[in-house]
Design a protein that fits this description.
Blueprint lengths: L1 E7 L11 E5 L8 H11 L9 E2 L2 E2 L3 E5 L2 E2 L15 E6 L5
Parallel strand pairs: 1-7
Antiparallel strand pairs: 1-2, 3-4, 5-6, 5-7
C-alpha cells in the first residue's frame, strides 16, 4: 500500500526539512491512523517528537487532513488507510 505524507507550516522541520514523503506499507496489514502515527514516529520523525505527538495523538495545533478532509470527519485515529491516501499535517503553531 502506498501513502503520501505531506508536512507543512513548519512541521516539515521535524522531518529533516522534507515536506513530502511517499511511503510503502505492508498491504497485508490493516493500517489505522493510530498505527501510522507510530510508524511515522519510529521511521520519519527526526527530532523533538513532543512537538508532533502528544501521547498517541497528534499534538493540538497540527491540522490533519485525509484526502483533503479534516480527519475528525473520517474517524481520526480509527480511520483505516486506503491505497493512495494523501495525509497532510499542517502546523498552525508559530513562534514569535
Amino acid at each position: 500500500m502506498e501513502v503520501s505524507l505531506n508536512f507543512s507550516g513548519g512541521a516539515e522541520l521535524l522531518f529533516g526539512k522534507i515536506k513530502q514523503h511517499t511511503i510503502s506499507l505492508p498491504a497485508e496489514e490493516t493500517w489505522s491512523m493510530k498505527k501510522l502515527l507510530n510508524w511515522i514516529k519510529d521511521n520519519l520523525l527526526k527530532e523533538r517528537p513532543e512537538l508532533f505527538l502528544q501521547g498517541d495523538m497528534v499534538r493540538p495545533g497540527i491540522l490533519v487532513l485525509v484526502n483533503n478532509a479534516d480527519w475528525e470527519l473520517v474517524g481520526q485515529l480509527d480511520y483505516l488507510l486506503q491505497n493512495k491516501d494523501e495525509i497532510v499535517f499542517i502546523s498552525t503553531l508559530h513562534g514569535g
